[in-house]
Amino acid sequence: MNPTTVAIRGGITRAWLELRQSFSNATDLINLFFFPILILIALYFMRNGTFHQTELKLGALALPGVLGSMIVFNGLYGIANYLVLDREDGTLLRAKATPNGTLAFFIGKIGVSAGQVLVQVAFLLAVGGLIVGGLSVGSVGNWLTLGWVVILGLLAVLPLGAVLGAILDGPRATFFLTLPLMGLIAISGIYYPITAMPGWVQGLAQVFPMYWVGLGMRSALLPADAAAVEIGESWRHLETVAVLGVWSLAGLVLAPSVLRRMARHESGSKVADRREKALQSAY
User: Fold this and answer.
1) Residue 271 pairs with which residues in a beta bridge?
2) In the chain, what are the domain boundaries?
3) Fewer Cβ atoms within 10 A, N terminus or C terminus of the chain?
């Protein structure tokens, strides 16, 4: 059998096992659903608010954007954090020691990150939809739009997250990654329509995937007249595909070389040095 095929199968198996493990461990479950539950609490208090003089409920407007931010934030941060931690404790080095183990390792991490994001999105969509109401999910077209937005959104952020995980120096640097991501959430029209923000903020937000994934999710889950509060009063599907496509292409081109370089530079001495530094900082 082709070695690459073996590695791909091994990566898929690894992703499935790690995903199952994350749902059988209490700590992993808390980490997985803590943030979505906080979002649901916020949506509960927003459920009766309306946007300006319209009949559009703030909760219904916010939920699709929140789902988009979940895809971007957890997809990007999740895989970056996995790579940093597995590099720190020597898991990557052990994978490197087996034939095509590095490829299987990376496929496994991409798979488990994508799987966890999809579970979180499904949970938020099901429970959040009941809380806020007003979603438009009755047609095949809505579900098709939801599908391509989720897939393209993950393609746009998972390779980028892998690149960040390869270059970030330790868990502390990964923690500081949350700050710019939270900033993007604040300006991307997630909890309040972006058209209510200054023009320069709107322009900045449209550079990054978070706004476009949120816009795509709103186009899939909200009634057509909800586009009135968007830029240009349009869902801009072509622009969404174009921007997310550019981010996907950039990540898929950049990630393999960066990940190969990271794996190539791993050694037993580096793992030992990191463990020694961790022990020193603990005391």
Assistant:
1) none
2) 3-282
3) C
Q: Which residues contact 81 (CB under 8 A, 6 or more apart)?
A: 165, 171, 174
**Per-chain mean pLDDT for the chain:** 84
**0.85 surpassed by pTM:** yes
- Separation of alpha carbons 68 and 153, rounded Å: 8
pLDDT digits (tens, 9 = 90+) for 54-111: 666 777 778 888 899 899 988 998 898 888 888 887 777 787 777 777 888 888 889 9
Looking at the DSSP bridge assignments, the partners of residue 57 are: 50
29-43, 86-100, 151-165: range with highest mean pLDDT = 151-165
Q: Look at phi and psi of residue 189 and say left if phi exceeds 0, alpha if psi is from -120 to 50, else beta.
A: left
* CB contact set of 148 (below 8 Å; sequence gap of 6+): 216
3-state secondary structure the chain: CCHHHHHHHHHHHHHHHHHHHHCCCHHHHHHHHHHHHHHHHHHHHHCCCECCCCCCEHHHHHHHHHHHHHHHHHHHHHHHHHHHHHHHCCHHHHHHCCCCHHHHHHHHHHHHHHHHHHHHHHHHHHHHHHHHCCCCCCCHHHHHHHHHHHHHHHHHHHHHHHHHHHHCCCHHHHHHHHHHHHHHHHHCCCCCCHHHCCHHHHHHHCCCHHHHHHHHHHHHHCCHHHHHHCHHHCCCHHHHHHHHHHHHHHHHHHHHHHHHHHHHCCCHHHHHHHHHHHHHHHC
Residue 228 sits at the vertex; the CA angle it makes with 226 and 234, to the nearest 5 degrees, is 95
